C-alpha cells in the first residue's frame, strides 16, 4: 500500500474531504491510501488534529515530516494559492510524485518558479482543475475536434473569480490552445465577461455569474457549459460534472503509479497567465490587458 501525504493550509475543506474519500473508494483504493497530513491553521472550528482523527489519518508536525514519510504527495490549499510557494517547497524538492491543487499559483511568475523547481529537482508534478475531466471535453477533442479544431470558444460557469476562474479558463485552454495575447473585461462583479484575443485570429471568452441563491428548496446558479465554433459549425455543451472529482482522484493515483501527467506544464502556465490578466482586466474595464507567460 503506497502512502499519500496531504499538505494543506487548512484541512477542513471540500477538496481534502472529497479527495480522501475518492482515493479510498476509487480504482486505486487497494493500492493507495491517505496516511499522513499537515495543516497550517484551523477552519470552521475544526483543527488539523480533529480532521485527522475523524478521517483515520496521522497528523504530522511539518510539511517536511509528511514528505519524509509519504510515497507521494498532494498539496491542497485550493482557496489560498498564495500559500502554494511555501507549502510546495519540501514536496517539489523531494523527487516524489506531487499533485498541486487548483489554483496552482497567484501569478504567472510564481507558476513558472514552481514548475522550474519541480523540473530542476527531478520531481514529477501536475496540477489541474477537475473540469479537465468532464466527458464533453474529451468528446469534442476525440471527435469533431480531430478534423475541425476550435476557432472560437466561450466557457461559462458560476461563482467568484478568485476561486472559480480556473474552472472556466482550464476548459478554454484545453479546447482552444495556447498563445493568448490579451484579455478584456466587461461586467459589474456579479456578471463577469472576459474576451480573449489571439494573434492568429482565434477568439476566446469566459464568463462567471455570481452569486447563486436559494429560494425555498430550490438552488439557482449557473451551470458549467461551453460553446465551440469549429470550421463552419457550432456545438454547445452543458458539462456533466458528477464524476469529475472521481476521475481526478483516479488520475492522481495513476500519475503516482508512474503514469503520465494529464496536464502539460504549457497548459498550466497559460491558465495562470490568463487568470492574472483577467484579474488585472477587472480593475481596468474595457482595456486590453497583455497576457504574460514564459514566452514573454
Structure in words:
The protein is an alpha/beta fold and 296 residues long. It has two domains: 2-127, NAD(P)-binding Rossmann-like Domain (Rossmann fold), CATH 3.40.50; 131-245 and 273-290, Dihydrodipicolinate Reductase, domain 2 (2-Layer Sandwich). Helix content is 37%, strand content 26%. The chain is built from ten helices and 15 strands. Strand 9 and strand 10 form a beta hairpin. Helix 1 (14-25) packs across helix 9 and helix 5 (108-121) packs antiparallel against helix 10 (265-283). The N and C termini lie far apart (44 Å). The mean pLDDT is 96.
Brief summary:
The protein has 296 residues and is α/β, with parallel strands linked by helices. The protein folds into two domains: 2-127, NAD(P)-binding Rossmann-like Domain (Rossmann fold); 131-245 and 273-290, Dihydrodipicolinate Reductase, domain 2, CATH 3.30.360. Helix content is 37%, strand content 26%.
